[in-house]
Design brief:
The chain has 463 residues and is an alpha+beta fold. The chain contains 21 helices and six strands. A hairpin with a 4-residue loop joins strand 5 and strand 6.
């Protein structure tokens, strides 16, 4: 038996009662968080009069299998998965399994919700499927990272498809052989999601979440139709499976090490702000300083952010202009910190076209610099240490340091924090009463008799 088969066998035979309470809790809150982020992503596109995704959906054949959230339209399984996965990436507000470098929920949650609607699954079925999908994605990712990332691949589109396939296969009742084939087929058809498409401001960036969900669903449907594929780690003599051809340093034993006792997905983090994960800490500290000292943008001479090496490498040197896109904005530490200081808050409106076209925020961003403290690398990624110093024009300097940033593995977001985030993301679209009902339904997802009833709460009563 190869590693992929052993992993698939465990996941196919996994019963809900075998899943630890903390993993089941993560499945519930991650489903809620993802749904809120999807609806917020749709609200942002509407606000920006960005109709690209809607026009694309109009080009696809009509079907009535699952719901494209926000659009309130029925679609095929794959189309619904694609739409919801893409919306989950629009604001970069999704969950992250840091050690695997993957936004787990961007593929797994849309795939699971679509298949659950189609199959008439219960909430408990969805919780089990998400525990399976997140754990598979985490194990594949950790086995390949960070080499896969540094080779230029974005795991949300690649590894995310494998997690999505596992979630879909779970809901479709796959046996061990079918589950192994689902993982292998996903590794054969997944999108080649790349760093240039993410870190250079292209508006195609959110699509890799949609492709992960779509490919995961497609892999499961192909297996249901009789297709087979080899293991993710490859076969002798060349071992040209997905894992080995897209990562220099693969540790396939992680796929199976500690199955049932060690849950690699349990370190999944949710985001406090709609930005790249490496920017959350700088915003959190900057906002605390602004509030404590009553700082206004015109008082600021310069800002120095000191953090771990990845912060500088991926987001610290990314400066913006009035011509930049919202993708540039949420992956630029200087812009995000400047907008937070100027506005005293950070949400999706700080990524709007109206905000980005204001020269003043870019002028302030040009005076935000990032430095590296190598000692901070020692506790990353479990902690996300950061120090922010704001130099004021009157000569004062104010600063603070935070090691356990809200959302890092050593300081996860609490249920009340996640509930507030969800309600804030959906209240305008659903109304406060509906938002509260949807929140409560997700928090008790494993007791829901019908997953479709929970999904139906994500549309206004009048729709």
């Amino acid at each position: 038996m190869n590693y992929t088969e052993e992993l698939a066998g465990f996941m196919a035979n996994l019963a809900l009662e075998d899943i630890p309470d903390h993993v089941r809790r993560l499945a519930r809150v991650n489903a809620m968080d993802a749904a809120g982020v999807i609806i917020a992503g749709h609200a942002f596109l509407e606000h920006e009069q960005d109709g690209r995704l809607g026009r694309y959906l109009d080009l696809l054949p009509l079907a009535d299998q699952a719901t494209a959230l926000g659009f309130h339209r029925r679609a095929s399984l794959q189309t619904a998965g694609f739409a919801n996965g893409t919306l989950s990436e629009v604001l970069d507000w999704q969950d992250t399994t840091m050690a695997a470098r993957v936004h787990s929920g961007s593929g797994a949650v849309p795939a699971a919700l679509a298949v659950a609607e189609w199959r008439g699954s219960t909430g408990a079925d969805v919780v089990r499927a998400l525990a399976v999908g997140y754990e598979v994605g985490a194990r594949v990712g950790i086995a390949m990272q960070p080499s896969h990332w540094y080779e230029g691949f974005q795991a949300t589109g690649t590894i995310g498809a494998i997690g999505a396939a596992a979630a879909a296969g779970s809901l479709m009742g796959f046996d061990p052989s079918q589950m192994a084939n689902a993982l292998g087929v996903a590794g054969f058809i997944l999108a080649i999601s790349n760093g240039d498409g993410v870190f250079h401001g292209y508006n195609v960036k959110p699509v890799h979440g949609g492709m992960a969900a779509q490919a995961g669903i497609q892999a499961a449907l192909l297996v249901e139709s009789g297709y087979e594929a080899g293991p993710l780690e490859g076969l002798e003599p060349r071992k040209h499976g997905f894992m080995n051809i897209s990562s220099e340093n693969v540790r396939p034993e992680i796929l199976t090490d500690g199955l049932g006792s060690t849950w690699r997905s349990s370190v999944c983090s949710q985001k406090l702000y709609p930005v790249g994960l490496l920017i959350i800490g700088p915003i959190q500290v900057a906002l605390a300083l602004v509030k404590e000292h009553g700082i206004r943008a015109e008082q600021v001479e310069s800002v120095l952010v000191t953090s771990y090496s990845d912060t500088l490498h991926f987001v610290g040197r990314h400066y913006t202009t009035t011509e930049s896109t919202y993708v540039d904005a949420h992956l630029s530490l200087p812009y995000s910190v400047a907008a937070a200081i100027a506005d005293g808050e950070y949400g999706w409106r700080q990524q709007s076209r109206r905000r980005i076209t204001d020269p003043a925020v870019h002028d302030l961003a040009s005076r935000v610099t990032v430095d590296v403290d190598k000692s901070m690398d020692e506790t990353y990624p479990d902690d996300w240490p950061v120090r922010v110093e704001i130099a004021l024009r009157d000569g004062r300097r104010v600063s603070d340091r935070l090691d356990k940033v809200t959302g890092c593995p050593n300081r996860p977001m609490t249920d009340p924090e996640l509930a507030r985030k969800f309600v804030g993301n959906v209240r305008d679209a659903l109304g406060p009463d509906r938002a509260g009902k949807a929140r409560d339904a997700f928090m008790a997802l494993d007791t829901a008799a019908s997953a479709s009833e929970v999904v139906n709460l994500l549309r206004p009563e009048a729709v």
